[in-house]
Amino acid sequence: MNAQIAYGFDNSQIASRFLNRLKSGDVGRVKARLCLGARAVLVTYSLVENDGFSSVCADLDDLAASMGGAEIPVP
Length: 75
Description:
The chain has 75 residues and is of the alpha+beta class. The protein has two helices and four strands; from the N terminus they run βαββαβ. 31% of the residues lie in helices and 31% in strands.
């Protein structure tokens, strides 16, 4: 099963930086692409059931917040 989360940013430059950080492997194994006029990033990752907690969502939230982004409704 896959999960999708979108993060919005103030401008496309910051969204691109966030996307590049994800593509460099800063947060586990995720797929990401720009959306909403390149001011947001849609992230997809697999939910692996391994007896409990996966920190991917929390890691994504922390990275986005450090860059001034926040979770938005998935387009």
